[in-house]
Structures are given as C-alpha cells and as structure tokens.
Amino acid sequence: MSLFRTELRRLTKRRFTRWTTVGGLLVLALVVVGLFITNQKIGPEQWAEAKRSADQSHAEQVRWVEQERANCERAKAAGENVDYYPADCAEIAPPAREDIRDEWYLPSTFIFKSSFQDMLIPLAAILAMVGFVVGASFVGAEWSTGGMMNLLLWRPKRLTVLLTKLGALLTGLLALALPASAAWFGSLWLVANWRGSTEGMTSGTWQSFLLTGLRGIVLALVAATVGFALASLGRHTAMALGGAVAVIVVGQGGLAILLDMAQVRFGEAWLLPTYVYAWMTKTVTLEDWRSCNASYTGECNAATLDITWHHSSLLFTVGIALFLGAALWTMRRRDVT
C-alpha cells in the first residue's frame, strides 16, 4: 500500500479536517451573500434617486446657510462680539449645485475590475488559516495519540514518513484551494453581473487577478507548512496554535507598541502582516511623516519605503527553511517515544 495514498486518505477522513474546511468555505459563502445583499446594480432609477438626494442635500445646505447669514447679520446689528462669523456676512454663501455631485448618493455597487483584487485577500486569509490549523492538527494528533510510533514500526524511515505526511497535506490543501478559488472567481463575477458591473476587463487585468490568486494559494501552502513544522517540533497541535497566538497577539502587537514608543522609522517593516499584505498586493508603501523630503516647490513630502513581494518571498523562504529544517532535524535526532 502506498504511504502517500494512506496519508492522503487519513487526512481527508479526519473529522477535524472536514469541519475546518466546511467552516472556512461557509465564511467565504457568507461574504459572497453579504456582497450580494449590500450592493445594487446602477441604472436610471438609482441615478434619479441619487439626483433627488443631491437636490435635497443642496436645499438643506441653502436653508442652513441662509439661517447662519441671518444670525450673523442680527449679531452684527446688535453689536455682539462674534469672532466665529466673517467680517462680511455676505461671505456666508451656500455651495453651488454643481459642487454636490449626484454620484455621491448612489448606492454601493460591486465593480469587478476595481474591487476583485481586494477580495482575493480574504480568500487567501481563509485558505491560509485552514491550512495552518489543519496542518498543525494533522501531524500533532499523530504525535499525541501515539500514531506516529505505530506508523514508524511499519515504515521506519523517519524523514520519509514526515515528508510524505507533508506532501499529502499540501496536496489535499491544493485540491481544496484550486476549486475554491475558481468558485470565488465565479461567485464574484455573478455578483458583479447582478449587483454591479463587469465592464473594463482586459486580458492584462485577468492575468493580474490570476497571478494574485496564485500568490494567495502559495500563501496558504506556506502557512500549512509552517503549522505542520511547528506541531512536529513540539509533537503536539498546541505547539503550533500556541506559537501562532504568541507571535500574532503577543509578539506582533507588543512589537508594534514598542516600535511606536521608540519612534522607529518605518516600524511596520518589522511586522509580519506587512509582508503578507505586500505578497498579495505586490507592493506596500510605508510613510514616515517625521521625515521631510522637500520638493522643488517647497512642499514637505513624507519619506517612503517600499516593501515588495520579493521581500515577502525571501521572508517566507527563510521561514520555511528554518521551521521545516528544524522539524526534520529533530525528527531524525530525537527518540520517538
């Protein structure tokens, strides 16, 4: 019997894997439903309603300005000291109607071209969370229940067993991520058709979306590998989950506060979420307003620092090498008891 097929079957048969997967997919489905409910397709009726709302807003501002002008004139005539009014009450004038744009009052609508790139981030986050938790539980449960020892009696090659488990995990996650991503594309395309617009899509835009979706899948595989390696190091699921809580809540939160107190330039560059976001969006520009780069017009511009997906890929590669390398080293060196 193939060890890989056995591990893949064990992964898919675990109730924790199934319920975690269902929970992640349910969250994504709720996001799609929420987008469908909160957005509308813009047509003549919506434009007419927006124009009426803009006219009403303009009329209310005219009434308010006229009342304020009357109050100003009354205060001036009474000789009151009113510094909050201008010297000439005639300067209190309402905005022109064309300054209040009708599109400000349009309902929310889902524009696929401008909105879908951002909607790939929650997809990647859910897949990464599912991959991390399932990966940690998959190997952690084997250690805590004694299944790893029994398996090594049948197949005594330690590193082969651990890497085969990892391969089965990544294969199963990939089998989930690919159709989930395709369903995400299709669902949001339908939302845009019914509750927004799909205009302006070009081959270059589609290519950009597909590459971003691919980076999201890679992020999920990285998270699953790290969760698997941490649980293998600690020989318990709690090692990975506790480590994640420590890093995200204590480490990143505490580090952010410390960097802000120390007034470190571009403090976000030391935080993991910055690199995750840069991986998905290709570039994150950090600004430091405490530094002034004067332009030729004398304007003060903030100093900037670009974090790109290349920096993120380097960080992810180093992280996988460290955690997975340590897990393999301890698997080979430590006793299995």
Helix content: over 70%
User: How confident is the prediction overall: mean pLDDT?
Assistant: 85
What is the radius of gyration?
Answer: 29 Å
Name the poorly predicted regions: none
Number of domains: 2
End-to-end C-alpha gap: 25 Å
Q: What is the total tally of β strands?
A: 4
Beta-strand proportion: 5-15%
Largest sheet: 2 strands, parallel
With helices defined by DSSP (H or I, 4 residues minimum), what is the helix count?
10
User: What general outline do the C-alpha atoms trace?
Assistant: elongated
Q: Tell me the series of helices and strands, N- to C-terminal.
A: HHHEHHHEHHHEEH
The spatial strand order of the largest sheet comes to: 1-2
Structural class: mainly alpha
How would you describe this structure in keywords?
72% helix; two-stranded antiparallel ribbon; two-stranded parallel sheet; 337 residues; mainly alpha
Topology:
Layout: H1 3-13, H2 15-38, H3 44-77, E1 110-111, H4 112-145, H5 147-154, H6 158-195, E2 196-197, H7 203-234, H8 237-261, H9 272-281, E3 283-294, E4 300-308, H10 309-333
Helix pairs in contact: 1-6, 2-4, 2-6, 4-6, 4-7, 4-8, 6-7, 7-8, 7-9, 7-10, 9-10
What does this molecule look like?
It comes from Micromonospora zingiberis. This is ABC transporter permease. The chain crosses the membrane at residues 16-37, 119-141, 162-186, 206-231, 238-259, 314-331. GO terms for molecular function: ABC-type transporter activity. Keywords: Membrane, Transmembrane, Transmembrane helix. The structure is a single chain. The chain has 337 residues and is mainly α. The chain has 2 domains: 3-41 and 109-333, no CATH class; 44-105. 72% of the residues lie in helices and 7% in strands. A two-stranded parallel sheet has the order 1-2. The chain has a two-stranded antiparallel sheet with strand order 3-4. A hairpin with a 5-residue loop joins strand 3 and strand 4. Helix 4 (112-145) runs parallel beside helix 7 (203-234). The protein is elongated.
